[in-house]
Design brief:
Helices cover 70% and strands 0% of the residues. The mean pLDDT is 90. It is globular and about 45 Å long. It is an all-alpha fold. It has a single domain, classed as MazG-like (Helix Hairpins).
Length: 118
């Protein structure tokens, strides 16, 4: 089991970019090539559900384990990296494009509301 001390030691030794994460995550992507895109997309949906389930239990039980949620979010990140690889997207580029979109919405006063084309 990974402890908070292990995580702190890792962070002290190595700062990582999205590009570096994507390269390292790819080394552990062992699903068959014929399941590209579908495997990580379904895995991402499953892991996002696990994040939601951990938060839901906070409502039910009145307790919240931040580290458990962080682990599930990390699993989501892995599936995002795998999906990006399969679709030939660079995670850094997607992150920058997403922030540009959100900043544009903020500037135009359309950050609230719904719909993709705001």
């Amino acid at each position: 089991m990974i402890t908070p001390d292990d995580i702190d030691a890792w962070k002290d030794m190595y700062q990582m970019t999205f590009e570096e994460y994507q390269i390292e995550a790819e080394k552990t992507a062992i699903y068959p090539k014929e399941h590209e895109i579908v495997y990580p997309a379904l895995g991402l949906a499953g892991e996002a559900g696990e994040v939601a389930n951990k938060v839901k239990k906070m409502l039910r039980d009145g307790t919240f384990n931040r580290d458990d949620v962080a682990a599930e979010i990390g699993d989501c990140l892995w599936y995002i990296a795998a999906l990006c690889r399969d679709l030939n997207f660079d995670m850094t580029d997607l992150a920058q494009r997403n922030l540009a979109k959100l900043n544009s919405r903020m500037e135009r006063g359309t950050i609230q509301g719904s719909g993709d084309k705001r």
